[in-house]
Amino acid sequence: MDPVLSAAPLPRIIQGGMGIGVSNWRLANAVSRTGNLGVVSGTVIDTVLVRRLQDGDPGGHMRRALAHFPIPGVADELLRRYFLPEGRAPGAPYHLLPMYKQLVSSARQRVTVAAAFVETWLAREGHDHAVGMNLLTKVQMPNLATLYGAMLAGVATVIMGAGIPREIPGALDALAKHEPATLRFDVDGLARDDAEFLSFTPADLWPDGVAPSQPLLRPNFFPVVSAVSLAATLARKSNGRVDGFIVEGPTAGGHNAPPRGTMQLDALGQPIYGERDAVDLVKLRELGLPFWVAGGVGTPEGLCAALDAGAAGIQVGTLFAFCDESGLAPDIKRETLRGVLDGTAHVRTDPRASPTGYPFKVVQLEGHERDVLERERICDLGYLREAVKREDGRMIYRCASEPVETYMHKGGTFCETDGRRCLCNGLLADVGLGQLRDGRAETTLVTSGDDLASLARFATNGHYGAASVLEWLESGLHATI
Questions:
Q1: What are phi and psi of 117, to 5 degrees?
Q2: What residue ranges define each of the domains in the chain, with the CATH number in brackets?
C-alpha cells in the first residue's frame, strides 16, 4: 500500500519554524487553529523535552502527550530517567543526553522520536487543522528520528533549510511505510569515491522489531530555497516528491544563505547582498509548484504583493517570535520590545557566528554583546558538529565553536574558530532551558529577521498575541474584498 498523502489545503500564512523551542507547540497550536499553518521547530527537540521534564513538566503537558506515544514502554522509560517531580535542585545543572554520532543506540533514538511526537501532538491537540515541522538540513544526525516521531503524531508538512535536502522526500516516503530510511552523511576527509550514510530503522524501536502495517501520513515537503536554480534542482533531482518551496531572502532571521559570488562585507562587517541574491518569482512560478515568500514580507502589503506575484502566501517569523505564545523567555521578549520602541535594539547579520559557515542574524541589545563574547567556549550538546574521517579511518566530530585547542587538535584551523559562537547552548538559553555551570546561567543568543522594527506596532502594550499578528497580516485582504 502506498503511504497516505497529505491533502491539507494550502495556507496563506505559514508561521516560521524558529530557533530551538521558539516555535513551540503553543505557538503552532494557536496559529493552526485559525486555518493557517502553525510550525514547530524540531531542532534539538530531544534536549528540549528532557530539560522540560527535569524542570518538573509545569502543567503536565509533556506527560499528557507522552501518554499517547504509540511505542510501548518508551514513555515510562523517559519519565523514569528524566522526570523530576519537584524540578531540579537550586543551582543543579541539566542532565545531558549523549551527543549524536553516525551510529547511536536505539535508546538514544527513542528519546528523539518521542520528543518530536510530543511537540507535534501538542501542536495538534484540540483542533483538526494541519501542523508543520521545521528542521535544519545541516543538523543531519537526528533528522530521520525526528521526522519519524513527528509523523507518528500526524505532522502534515515538513520544512527544511540550511542545506540541500535532496534525499528527504525519499526518506519521508520510506518512513511513512515504517521502512528503513537513509541519508548520505556529509563527512569531511572522504576519498572521492567513498560515501557514508545515516540510517534509521523504525522497526528497531517497536517490540520484537515489528513496526505497524498501517502507513502513516506522508507529509508535504517544502524545502527552503534562495535561488530558482536550487528550487529547480530539488524539484527535478530529489529522490521523491517535492510539494512546494519556501523562498527565503537574506532579510529572514536565523541562518541565511551566503551572498552569491565573492563574499563582501559592509562597514559593520555584514555580508553585502545584491541583485543576484533576489529570487526571480516569475521563473519560480514556471516550475509549477506552490511557493511562499519569506523574509521582510511580514506586512499586509507584503502578503498582497506575494499573492499578486503568484505565491500561495508568505512565511512570517519575526512577528511571531516575540508574541505571547512563542517559547522565548518573557524577559527577552520584554527587553527586545522595549529596545524596539526606544530604538536601541537592532539586528546584525554576522558572517562568523554560526559554526555552520552560514551567515547568522543576531539581535543586538545594550550590554548583551559583552556577555556573549566573554562566554567560555564549550561544546557539550554537539548538534552542529561536523564529521571528519581521519587518515586511519576513524570518524571524529568537531565544531568550530568548541575550545580552540580541541578543534585544532582534531585537524581544524585557528581561523575557522574566530568569532564562532555556540548556537546550541545560546538558543536553548533563549527559551529558558540554558545550562547552569558553577551556578552561572548560559548566555542567550537571540536571533531575528531584519524587520525587527515592525514589532513596534505590537510592542506598545509590552506584549501581544499570535491572533493579533494574523489579523493584521490579513487586513489587506479584507480591504480588497
A1: -60, -50
A2: 11-332+460-480 (3.20.20)
